[in-house]
Amino acid sequence: MNPEIEYELMKSHANELRRAAAQHRRVREAERLNKAERRSVFGKRRTS
Q1: pLDDT-based confidence at 19, cuts 50/70/90?
Q2: Mean pLDDT in residue range 10-33
Q3: Count of alpha carbons within 13 Å of 4, Cβ hemisphere only?
Q4: Residue 41 parent element (H or E)
Q5: Pairwise CA distance, residues 10 & 29, whole Å
Q6: 3-class secondary structure, 2
Q7: Mind spelling out the 3-state secondary structure of 5-28?
Q8: Distance in Å from the first CA to the final CA of the chain
Q9: Which residues make Cβ contacts (< 8 Å) with residue 27, sequence separation at least 6?
Q10: Per-residue pLDDT averaged across 10-24, rounded?
Q11: What DSSP state is assigned to residue 1?
C-alpha cells in the first residue's frame, strides 16, 4: 500500500480512538457523579 495513504489511515484511526476515549471518560465521569449524588441522598434519608 502507498505509505502516504497508510500514514493518513493511521492518523485517522488514532483520532477516532482519541475521540472514543474522550467520550468514554465523559460517560464514566457522569456515572461517577450520579452515583455520588445518589449515595449522598440515600445517606441523608437514612440519617434523618
Answers
A1: very high
A2: 95
A3: 0
A4: helix 3-47
A5: 28
A6: coil
A7: HHHHHHHHHHHHHHHHHHHHHHHH
A8: 69
A9: none
A10: 98
A11: -
Question: Which residue type is seen at 14?
Answer: A
User: Which triple of cell numbers denotes residue 3?
Assistant: 505509505
Encoded amino acid at 24, one letter: H
Separation between Cα atoms, residue 26 and residue 30, nearest integer Å: 6
The residue behind cell 488514532 is 14
In the chain, the amino acid numbered 43 is G
Q: Can you read off the three cell numbers belonging to residue 4?
A: 502516504
How far, in Å, CA of 29 to CA of 27, rounded? 5
For residue 12, which of 22, 4, 1 has the smallest C-alpha distance? 4
Whole-number Å distance between alpha carbons of 13 and 21: 12
